[in-house]
Amino acid sequence: MTISFGLLGAGRIGKTHATAILGIPGAKLTAVYDPVDAAAEHIVKMSGARRASVDEILADKSIHAVLICTPTDMHADQIELAAKAGKAIFCEKPVDLSAERVRACLKVVEATKTKLMIGFNRRFDTNFAAARHRIDAGDVGTVELVQIVSRDPGPPPLEYIKRSGGLFRDMMIHDLDLARFLLNGEEIVSVSATGSVLVDSAIGEAGDVDTATATLRSKSGKIVVITNSRRATYGYDQRIEIHGSKGAVSAANIHTNTVTLANVDGYREAPLLNFFMERYADAYRSELQSFVTAIETGSPISPSGLDGLKALELADACVKSMQSRAEVVVVV
Amino acid sequence: MTISFGLLGAGRIGKTHATAILGIPGAKLTAVYDPVDAAAEHIVKMSGARRASVDEILADKSIHAVLICTPTDMHADQIELAAKAGKAIFCEKPVDLSAERVRACLKVVEATKTKLMIGFNRRFDTNFAAARHRIDAGDVGTVELVQIVSRDPGPPPLEYIKRSGGLFRDMMIHDLDLARFLLNGEEIVSVSATGSVLVDSAIGEAGDVDTATATLRSKSGKIVVITNSRRATYGYDQRIEIHGSKGAVSAANIHTNTVTLANVDGYREAPLLNFFMERYADAYRSELQSFVTAIETGSPISPSGLDGLKALELADACVKSMQSRAEVVVVV
Amino acid sequence: MTISFGLLGAGRIGKTHATAILGIPGAKLTAVYDPVDAAAEHIVKMSGARRASVDEILADKSIHAVLICTPTDMHADQIELAAKAGKAIFCEKPVDLSAERVRACLKVVEATKTKLMIGFNRRFDTNFAAARHRIDAGDVGTVELVQIVSRDPGPPPLEYIKRSGGLFRDMMIHDLDLARFLLNGEEIVSVSATGSVLVDSAIGEAGDVDTATATLRSKSGKIVVITNSRRATYGYDQRIEIHGSKGAVSAANIHTNTVTLANVDGYREAPLLNFFMERYADAYRSELQSFVTAIETGSPISPSGLDGLKALELADACVKSMQSRAEVVVVV
Amino acid sequence: MTISFGLLGAGRIGKTHATAILGIPGAKLTAVYDPVDAAAEHIVKMSGARRASVDEILADKSIHAVLICTPTDMHADQIELAAKAGKAIFCEKPVDLSAERVRACLKVVEATKTKLMIGFNRRFDTNFAAARHRIDAGDVGTVELVQIVSRDPGPPPLEYIKRSGGLFRDMMIHDLDLARFLLNGEEIVSVSATGSVLVDSAIGEAGDVDTATATLRSKSGKIVVITNSRRATYGYDQRIEIHGSKGAVSAANIHTNTVTLANVDGYREAPLLNFFMERYADAYRSELQSFVTAIETGSPISPSGLDGLKALELADACVKSMQSRAEVVVVV
Predict the structure, then answer these.
(1) Cβ–Cβ below 8 Å for B247 and A253
(2) How many domains are there within chain C?
(3) Which of B211, B133, B222 is nearest to B166 (CA)?
(4) pTM of the predicted model, to two decimals?
(5) Is B14 exposed, middle or buried (0-12, 13-18, 19+ CB in 10 A)?
(6) Is B262 in CB contact (< 8 Å) with chain A?
(7) How far is A56 from chain C (nearest CA, A)?
(8) Consecutive sets of 10 residues in chain A, 332 residues long: mean pLDDT of each?
(9) D39 and B CB contact within 8 Å
(10) CATH of the domain at B105
(11) Same domain, C168 and C316
(12) Which of A216, A223, B256, C212 has the smallest C-beta neighbourhood within 10 Å, fewest atoms?
């Protein structure tokens, strides 16, 4: 059986997912929706999918699943519509910027017994998955301290930032989910966060920060430290490190190549892969592969809508902690 | 315009190329030939190409190019047939195990003005290409010393070895071509080589060696040292290092992931990508992309049939040097 | 002129300093005080110094400087005595566990115009100093985010912990000073800290933590994140990373050797140098060399008594933050 | 008992050994000979040793051992004189540039039952020793292929080169000994070598080469490849790699510090330690410590005079191979 997809939203991330689907045996892209002609036509040309409206896609019984890559404020509504139309749903993070709205949306998902996967792509990165595998295998013993570094090569457009929900809900939410992934079931019970405007004062004027850190604590006292920056001159900086009673496991960055030049100035290696589309190209493929497999086999979907909600709640708590300058308890 | 390909030979390397073609915009696989049903059908299913005989493929005017991935002893004949049929040709190395036969074949290629590319995939590896780019940019100054390490994870089947022409013509030929690629136009004038049977005595009984080294000298005295082994327990070991008057550039191996486990036994990183299909997956794609682009634009093809001949002549000289225990002059 | 030293306290760190003095031209160890016979005699035998009481050392006009390596609760009194005796003073950190006591002590130091250096050895580590040099040279642009990792191979004896003032005042104080060293003049204005008992519950029963993190903010919003653990199975983990507007500079760990073993299990490197005496052996030498040079040339001493006080105040603020679960403002 | 040393020759390497002795418990430098006032006085001032003639040193019954660091053409005579005077002898390599003269000298050493150690310092390098330890522990299985890279930061003065015996006897001799050290008892039976003049044509005019490689074969077919250059812009390049049936062990270079700067140009690490005195400072200390221990305990001395002879014979064979352009059999 081939899983037939409808794509809602043909922007940067929609295009990334469309490309990934082309390389997955047992999956095909059937239809694409985007109000922007150029964006939609690009996908049509690339994949052979037809262009269609959201309604047409949801009404098409031959389409098994939708990929929701539209702007964030449309996610929750489209999830509910697709759920009622009986589609399996892959939705880019976040479901919504309001935790309350997410909870309402997840009730519809639950009531319709819809398969919903949230696009926390980093769980599917070969390296992070291998680190988690080491943890599961007991190689680090009991986890004590997790450190996550995530720095973008540069800030997104100011207009994007204004609608993004802020650094914690837009950027750190990936790391908050990664923290939960690495702690593997032990939930975070409190957070302390702080942020600064150091990269671009316009970001501050827009009410956001561009440099931030959060310290999370789990029930048993495990500590997670996340640092974020909207700037990294040397590429897309994505590292994790997990320290435990028996050892430590870390996943390093990926350079654009393995070449080193040695001369009188020292040893020079290449910068990092530049941004998420290069860095996580394989992860996007694995993510969709996992979604396809779950649909085919009926196995549970992960990360689920609940995982999306949990990460958002942590992001909200971070914002509250930054504002109150105090630790914030998270209701688990 | 889409370049239409016929594939001759659907074994391991044929399948690799077929996969690469699927990912190249402007290229498609139209027909596949292989006497083995399972092999041919696998390609048919994967790519939508039709199964056909060699004659049918060569007679099909809609097919622009052929990929010759058949056993080595069929290469030269098929190159000549395809050249006469007006196809562009991509042929896996070597053209033939006899330099004399290669020379005769290249005369036909020349007479028919055929575009012929030889499958020295390593020239298209991101890392080796980046190293060569450093050399071209003058970053190492005048090249003085080149070191190439190539070790297979394990020896091929004995039956393969018996028909392979021996380690120098089958395995080191890649490194001999890489040496010429890195010296960028300055030809090798003499070689000294030696080999041992250390991995498997059956290889020795078959008249071959499994561990070998060659020292090459260029006209101006540049030195290239190649070491080969049919064994590498830690994966597919592929490294180069170029030392010059202003610096040194090296390309390191690729590990299966970037994860490190640190514990009381030290720091442990993952083994290397296991073999050429994983290690050079991107290189195979770039190689075919380069071939497609050369057909489309009419630009010169590299590596050419002459490059294939030169590498074989160096391999022959290595064998002669190993046997005579003396340096062998190569007629340039 | 040769600077003549009296050593007060011949324990582990006293012995380290005595060894360092032997290798410094223009310095000699003249006398050693320790109530424990074996400790004192070991130094006598190693260095040729004579054994003496504290009073004798302070009264000996031929002795220019004292090294205070006694238990912490004796430091402040001995600094005052030595200051009044006209000696230059090198004192191990901390001056005292009470910031108030330190302030009183520094008044005596100031009144007597005594040269006082505090033993923050990490400032003299080749690697950390090279990182700071990069910052000073403008290579990272404006500093935005500093990350410091410090993990001991294992916890000290419980008796030590009980008298140590706790992890923040005993262990993290080094990192707090390093943070100030790397920020180079921009003071910390607030701290948020947390700690857990994950390594040994007896540490918790003694009222201390064994795993901790602190987030510091400077006046302009620069952020420093420190993580500490009393456990690191793979050696003494000491890393820093400074991220700025133009780049990032980091100093990596030091392994016991440069050997890598590659086999079917991957690539294995040696563990780290085991503890501070091996890791910072060169730093201890440079530190004392710096002290000797400052005495000889009359140049300012750094880190000063004030640096010692500032680090202690930050440690106190961390403890307060951990207890109050809120950010604590530091009076600069 | 303290071993008392007389130093013959207070040049660069003599000074290195004198410094090493100062740090060895149970050893002291008693007397120094050098016709150059400044060189001798420097050692006197540094160590407290007295200045003396060779005859005085050999006649002084309180001196147990001599360090021969004079020009090469004086080594053999001084070894014989010291042997007859009953001294233990540490002699810098080579014993002589003539293998015949070495053999005659070793007869005197044998007849007088003299303890003679040859200064192949690299055997005592922590990293190379750790690699050998891995081999001895069976971690690489049966050794198959050894690769040694040795590149000096720059060529020595032309006058030095003229008297040095040439690159093979002066520089590669260290690597030839290292090859024997790593093969641990299995002797080399043939060599193939080549050399070029690429760094400085004046070296060629002086009859020497500045870039060279040698391929050695042991009785069982193990292969050793050595590459040498008198140039390395990035520091003193000293690496080994041993490949065997179960794995590979390698020892990497040592950088001047562990700092990395990451910016838009990539990742930059520090150059290597600059030359042998920095790179092998610890090795010189361990080497002399080993000599002192052997004198104290009566244990066998390694590397012995015979090791010195073997390395020279291999160097001679390399020269012969380079000149004859053929493999040269070595009489074991």
Answers:
(1) no
(2) 2
(3) B211
(4) 0.95
(5) buried
(6) yes
(7) 48
(8) 94 93 88 97 90 98 98 96 98 96 98 97 97 97 98 96 95 98 94 98 98 97 98 97 98 97 97 90 94 94 97 98 98 72
(9) no
(10) 3.40.50.720
(11) yes
(12) B256
